[in-house]
Write a structure and sequence with these properties.
Layout: H1 12-35, H2 43-52, H3 72-100
């Protein structure tokens, strides 16, 4: 993981790598939305879409769930992941802003 602090600022190469990872993540999410989430109304098609999905080496593994509804634990985990990603992105944005200014 790339970490920047006042003592250890990010190099141009590391900043470029961060931007490339962000771009890759956005591309993968776009493909997930297009190839998987478009089938949310049809359980069978959604299940097949998840198993057939492969974008830039990213694929869903060990997916064997009933897709009728989400349970509490899953929803709780999704909120936790979303919060963690939001905090991480905010931190990285602060670092990039500090580097640029």
């Amino acid at each position: 993981m790339i970490v920047e602090s006042e003592e250890y600022p990010l190099s141009d190469k590391e900043l470029e790598e961060l931007e490339e990872r962000k771009t890759r993540r956005e591309e993968i999410w776009d493909e997930i939305k297009e190839q998987v989430l478009d089938y949310i109304d049809n359980e069978h098609a959604a299940y097949n879409a998840v198993h057939e999905f492969n974008e830039q080496g990213f694929e869903f593994v060990d997916f064997d769930y009933d897709c009728d509804e989400y349970d509490f634990c899953y929803i709780w985990c999704v909120y936790g992941v979303a919060m963690g990603v939001k905090m991480y992105d905010a931190h990285k944005l602060e670092q990039l802003d500090a580097k640029v200014s």
